[in-house]
Each structure stands twice: as structure tokens, then as C-alpha cells.
Amino acid sequence: MYNGQSGHRYGVGMRISATDAKNRFGQVCSEAKRGPVIVEKDGRPDTVIVSFEQWESVTRPSGASLRARRRQFVEAHREWLDAYREQVEREGTSGATLRAF
Known about the structure:
By secondary structure, the protein is α+β, with helices and mostly antiparallel strands. The protein is built from 4 helices and 3 strands, in the order βααββαα. It has a 3-stranded mixed beta sheet. The longest helix is centred in the last third of the chain and has 26 residues. 9% of the residues are buried.
């Protein structure tokens, strides 16, 4: 039951039955390089096949410690708030666009 749908790298890719995946394994591997392949059993999603590159990106440690990532987030958030405050000072706000933080 190959539905012929092919997705992009980060979206939903091809959906295929387990039997068709077994019979067309080479095609499934090629498709997995373009996006995730969802293998269905009894009409329900069962397994996802992804490229090695995508697998590595999910399982590889980021290299940055939790403390360093937290610091990066706090700094990025602070920059975003500063830019938002500057925009409010420049343009003002109306009741329709006012958001509480």
C-alpha cells in the first residue's frame, strides 16, 4: 500500500505498508534520504525509517552543556524582549496588540 506521497526533509514523508516496505526496501531507503518513511501495520503507523544523517542529528550530543544552552537561551530571549520593547517605544501599542508577559 504505497500511497505515493513524498515529503520534504522535516515533514511527513512517504507512508507505506510493512509488506510493501519489505518488497521495496531499496526504494524505501532512497526515500528516507529525502524525508521520514512511515511504515504501517494494520493501517496504523508502526515504525519510522530515517536517513543515517537525520538519525545522527537526533542522537548526537549537542556538545554544549545544559548550563551553556540555558545561557544561550536566556541571552536570545533577552535580545528578543529588548527588540520588542524598542518596537513598543517606537510604534506604541494598541489594546488589540497588547500582550502580557
